[in-house]
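Action item from last meeting closed. Structure (303 res):
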């Protein structure tokens, strides 16, 4: 008797603003939903009768609208408990279950995942359902661009993208949203190319050329190695000139000139000393030499 009274009150609340014909249609829809849920989810519905379940569905529909009815139809009586557990994310949980049914439960039951869905929308939910746990850090780090890219690729490419983000390659490229935009547009082809050429794409000129026009790279008509070589070999050739130029800029020319004068002075002084010493030796030799009667020079013996 009490259950029937509660059921009647709930219907009055739900149907009060409606036209009589609309009210009858809503009441019929709620009851049909209750009957459908009991047939489909018999064990989960437990021992609830039609009236009790219809009362709960009516209250649920009052709070969450038509999506509440659809969520219950797809998920069954679990929807009431799951939404209650979702707390502030209850409306998002209802929306997700109404659209994806049981597939949404994996997200609804995890506070981190449901918060990602609340922040980034349906595309983030689809990415998480498609790629599982590997999608979470990507979505938290990059947001909607990551969701769009993940939804455009296979699970294998999704794993590769997650690894590039985890090891820092995406950060090193410095143009992550644009890279993910190419993945979103070209799917697995783009992800395979990025994976195979991640080292080459670290060269800024190569990355810029790829992002400006990806198709020639993806179909093989343009070789990224040629661009890398062009922008790495030339700088190496220019290194000696740059080193000399930099050294010239950093040289203290005043000190160099003073040092040069000092060296020249030392050399001239040394040469003058050598010349003076040579003249002294010759002079001394001439004083100690005499000639005999035959004209032959002889050296005087000292003492």
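Sequence:
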């Amino acid at each position: 008797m009490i259950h029937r009274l509660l059921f009647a009150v709930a219907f009055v609340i739900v149907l009060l603003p409606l036209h009589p014909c609309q009210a009858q249609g809503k009441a019929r829809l709620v009851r049909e939903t209750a009957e459908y849920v009991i047939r489909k989810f018999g064990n989960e519905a437990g021992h609830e009768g039609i009236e009790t379940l219809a009362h709960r569905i009516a209250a649920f529909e009052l709070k969450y609208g038509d999506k509440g009815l659809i969520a219950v139809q797809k998920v069954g009586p679990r929807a009431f408990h799951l939404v209650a557990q979702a707390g502030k994310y209850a409306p998002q949980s209802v929306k997700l279950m109404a659209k994806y049914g049981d597939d949404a439960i994996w997200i609804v039951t995890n506070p981190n995942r449901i918060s990602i869905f609340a922040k980034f929308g349906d595309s983030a939910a689809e990415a998480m359902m498609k790629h599982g746990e590997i999608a979470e850090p990507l979505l938290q780090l990059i947001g909607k661009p990551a969701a769009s890219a993940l939804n455009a690729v296979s699970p294998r490419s999704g794993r590769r993208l997650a690894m590039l983000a985890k090891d820092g390659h995406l950060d090193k490229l410095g143009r992550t949203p644009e890279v993910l935009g190419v993945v979103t547009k070209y799917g697995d082809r783009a992800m395979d190319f990025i994976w195979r050429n991640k080292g080459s794409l670290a060269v800024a000129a190569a990355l810029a050329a790829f992002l400006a026009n990806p198709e020639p790279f993806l179909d093989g008509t343009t070789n990224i190695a040629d661009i890398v070589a062009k922008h790495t070999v030339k700088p190496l050739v220019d290194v000696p000139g740059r080193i000399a130029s930099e050294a010239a800029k950093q040289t203290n020319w005043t000190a160099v000139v003073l040092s040069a004068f000092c060296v020249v002075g030392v050399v001239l002084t040394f040469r003058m000393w050598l010349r003076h010493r040579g003249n002294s030796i010759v002079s001394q030799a001439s004083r100690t030499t005499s000639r005999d009667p035959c004209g032959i020079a002889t050296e005087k013996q000292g003492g």
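Note appended to the action item: Residues 69 and 113 are 23 Å apart (CA to CA).
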